Amino acid sequence: MFSPHLDRWSLISDGEPIITHSSRLLPVLWQDRPAMLKVAADIDERYGALLMQWWDGDGAAYVYAHEGDAVLLERATGKRSLLAMAMNGEDDEASRILCRTAARLHAPREKPLPDPIPLTRWFRDLEPAAGKHGGTLTDCSAIANVLLADQREVTILHGDIHHDNILDFEARGWLAIDPKRLHGERGFDFANIFANEELPVITDPARFRRQLAIVSAEAKLEPKRLLQWIAAYSGLSAAWFLGDPNIQQAETAMTVARIALAELES
């Protein structure tokens, strides 16, 4: 799997392979620099590599080489972790860092990105899931339809901003990896800050309200609009988990959606 790329790009293996559901990764050295060789196993990862290349190291890791399913990326070597920060008393600062990184990614670029995925297509699984399961998903789907019909501040989106996708690159700061190459309202990109199931406190309403104030201020978003995106995104996430099926994570996502819906009604 890795050998052809190791030879082609003159790479030296520098760690154990990392296997995920969507890609195969290998820490390597390239021209004495730490890098990550990533071989995509699905179409979203291939799209993501093109977006990383388009950002050209501004707010995201540099792409050193790219061919077919394989991409050679700048590797994060910093010791800090946003997830660890969020779980150890620095939750507010972690959210601010996520917002600042997203803002860099949303900045206008002169060159166009060919064929990004529109948010309308990204949300295509929510309405059928709402029809099947009803309840909270019905409310989330209705909100998503309203948002998608009237998108504001449309830009290229990362699509999966969360604590494990913004990494410490030391002197280069906090940079993004693993985007989805979406196009739509920028507010969407801040919803997943509230929905990272790796963070146990996401279902705490008090924590939710505190982060809502922080993220809406840092990202310059109207709190109501952000709440709507959180509800829509959490509903979509629940729909995906129900399709797997992963009932426990679906319920976590729907709990976040219910908190957002309750805040919208208050």
Can you walk me through this structure?
The structure is a single chain. With 266 residues, the protein is of the alpha+beta class. It is 46% helix and 18% strand. The chain has helices spanning 3-8, 43-55, 82-87, 91-106, 119-122, 126-133, 136-149, 205-219, 223-243, 247-265; strands at residues 11-13, 18-19, 23-30, 33-40, 63-67, 70-74, 117-118, 154-157, 166-168, 174-176, 182-185. Strand 3 and strand 4 (33-40) form a beta hairpin. The longest helix has 21 residues, at 223-243.
In short:
With 266 residues, this protein is of the alpha+beta class.
Rg to the nearest angstrom? 19 Å
Q: Please state the overall shape, judged from the principal axes of the Cα atoms.
A: globular
Order of helix and strand elements from N to C terminus: HEEEEHEEHHEHHHEEEEHHH
- Helix share bin: 40-55%
> CA-to-CA gap between the ends?
53 Å
Taking pLDDT < 50 over at least 5 consecutive residues as the criterion, the unreliable ranges are none
User: Number of helical runs?
Assistant: 10
Q: Tally the beta strands.
A: 11
Summing up helix and strand content along with how strands pair, one would put the structural category as alpha+beta
Instruction: Determine the strand fraction and express it as a percent band.
Output: 15-25%
Characterize the biggest β-sheet: 6 strands, antiparallel
Determine the mean pLDDT.
95
Organism: Rhizobium ruizarguesonis
Protein name: 3'-kinase
Pfam family, one: APH_6_hur
